[in-house]
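Are you able to produce any protein sequence you like plus the matching backbone structure tokens because I've never seen that pairing?
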Amino acid sequence: MAETTIRQRPHYLARLWAELGRMGGEHDAFIKVIIVERIVKAIVLIALAIALLVAGHKGWLDAWADNAENQLNLNVGRNIIMQLLLRILVYIGGFNHVTLLAISAIAYAGLEGTEGIGLAMRRRWAEYLTVIATGVLIPFEAYEVIFHPSLFKVGALLLNLAVVGYLAYRKRLFVGI
């Protein structure tokens, strides 16, 4: 009998690791817009966090921070569990809500900056990170647009839908892994 060699498909994690390590294609205009938007958003969030940490939480800055928290959807999902976790964090760490907002802004700026720099370096993992991180927040943004509409929230939702749709379809993410 002739011996036939059966070529097995590599394990899923091996294919995923290879996919994430690939270089992305050339940048078109929309990818450049995404890169600039992510990096600018990271810079603005870091400036906001520094302003909150330096200026404290008295007077106009406290009211502005509350307004920014509402407009940037940072108060989405404040159910009983989230309130309990925030109270525990405030109690243990001794942080006030302005400090928590500043820390959250720094963490979110880190994520946005990582996405922007990764996309600028044409890394495939950055395309996946951008789609997943942006896509996870779309249901919350849609909820906010429906129940607390503002022009800023509608624009952010439309931009994020465009980013997720474009990257997932045009860059053929999640196909063939």
